[in-house]
């Protein structure tokens, strides 16, 4: 099946340790810890957990001296655990003071995130911003200039609002505020360049909470610069609301070739793992055909023909098993992330969907003969029955992976990540 993928807007390429962000490279998944950064052990462990789930960069809060003092230790702990994931320092209000007081913090981070609306006002704010940028340049670090709807540069907002009021036909206030967002990012980037930070060390973001506003702002920003863009709703929300809102907004932009890194800012359920936001980001990219991260399971939703829960349980168990294997498989079996497995519940679509997958099983529906044909690369290979069907099918999957993605396997890839074609912005 031929699939036409969206082409990416052309951008600078930004090197962040071993990760490249920008056109010509895959869209990068990132996330953020919610531990107290001053607790170096807990923060390092959560970074490792997020990394193992698939986060390629992880942002940590650097908000006070206690946190800044622990950043180098966190980096050292990660290195000792064999986790090379780049760390991003999230600075607000006092970043310049923390970097001055704790220079090892600035050296240990791979990228600084600066919100121009929270740096400060007037001449003092300009000096603080300049210190942050010069420190990044001296350390050879990249910077994300991240503008947020809730913390805009008020002097810029006043300037544009005053200018708008003097027009013969003023624009709606919402339109002016969107221009404030975009202009704040662009003007701050230009200031950074003027201060000596190379263009290929700058990433921009303009985050808002509403889907339609985010789409409009990023379309505008993307048309006016060649910087890589980081996508995400600033507060997506909890559960299905956050997932749906993020998917709706980011899918539109990614389909238009806009976006070079993404984060899904989900509010986690109390006590739940932070890794859900990583999984959602991966699944957005993978279901759009932009990247592959883990083998995907196609499963039917169930209906009156499938009163048994066997196919649901098998689909769940297979998907969980595949995801848990990926930290090892991605190194041992390059290309396995593109594997497709089908777990179907009855004879209506079961055989057809199973034949289209790399490996598929068509379980019996209500009243059907209690046997389950298994299809491998479109051909019926074996029929399973009895209480051990799940374990036997899982063994078939394991054997298929080893034979096809192991050394000499016909589906093994030297480079599993897909590179998306580039177009001129």
UniProtKB/TrEMBL annotation:
Q: Which UniProt keywords apply?
A: 4Fe-4S, Iron, Iron-sulfur, Isoprene biosynthesis, Metal-binding, Oxidoreductase
What chemistry does it catalyse, as a reaction equation? (2E)-4-hydroxy-3-methylbut-2-enyl diphosphate + oxidized [flavodoxin] + H2O + 2 H(+) = 2-C-methyl-D-erythritol 2,4-cyclic diphosphate + reduced [flavodoxin]
Q: What EC designation does it have?
A: 1.17.7.3
Primary enzyme class:
oxidoreductase
Cite the NCBIfam families for this sequence: ispG_gcpE, PRK00366.1
| Domain of life according to the entry | Bacteria
Q: Which family does it belong to?
A: Belongs to the IspG family.
The signal peptide stretch is none
Cofactor mode of binding and number, as noted: Binds 1 [4Fe-4S] cluster.
Segments forming domain IspG C-terminal: 297-398
> GO:BP terms for this protein?
isopentenyl diphosphate biosynthetic process, methylerythritol 4-phosphate pathway; terpenoid biosynthetic process
Species this protein is from: Eikenella exigua
Relate the protein's function as given in its record: Converts 2C-methyl-D-erythritol 2,4-cyclodiphosphate (ME-2,4cPP) into 1-hydroxy-2-methyl-2-(E)-butenyl 4-diphosphate.
| One Pfam family in the UniProt entry | GcpE_C
| An example Gene Ontology molecular-function term | 4-hydroxy-3-methylbut-2-en-1-yl diphosphate synthase activity (ferredoxin)
Q: Which gene encodes it?
A: ispG
Protein name, please? 4-hydroxy-3-methylbut-2-en-1-yl diphosphate synthase (flavodoxin)
InterPro entries xrefs: Dihydropteroate_synth-like_sf, IspG_bac, IspG_bac-typ, IspG_C, IspG_TIM, NO2/SO3_Rdtase_4Fe4S_sf
IspG TIM-barrel domain segment(s): 11-281
Q: Which Gene3D superfamilies match?
A: Dihydropteroate synthase-like, Sulfite Reductase Hemoprotein, domain 1
Give the transmembrane region(s): none
